[in-house]
Amino acid sequence: KNLINTQVVPFYEDATVPLVARYRAAMEKYDKLSVPPDVAGIVYKPTETYSFGSLEGYMNVRAFAAILEKTGKDLTRRSFYTAAESMGPFDLGLGVPA
After folding, report:
1. What letter does residue 30 receive in the DSSP assignment?
2. Phi and psi of 44, rounded to 5°?
3. pTM of this prediction?
4. Rounded CA gap, 36 and 12, in Å?
5. Per-residue model confidence as pLDDT tens digits over 58-88
6. Can you name the residues that pair with 46 across neighbouring β-strands?
7. CA 63/CA 53 separation, integer angstroms
8. Residues 47-56: pLDDT tens digits?
């Protein structure tokens, strides 16, 4: 109950969905970046710009950011949990509250 499950996501090419449009803009903005070799031991560069997996990750980050926003400046583990548990319905950009 009241859980967002992002295993099934919109098609990453459907920019008519606001969340997908924002995802695509973010992916294009940061497409030239890669993980520095000293972090991963190799230079990582995905073969595709968009994917269901990265869209799922983007949705997770949007939900996490919404919780952080609600938590405010006094971030603790407890305040994060409290904010997450009291979020209520909110729209990640899919046009429906989750």
Report:
1. T
2. -95, 130
3. 0.75
4. 26
5. 999 999 999 999 999 999 999 999 999 998 8
6. none
7. 16
8. 788 998 889 9
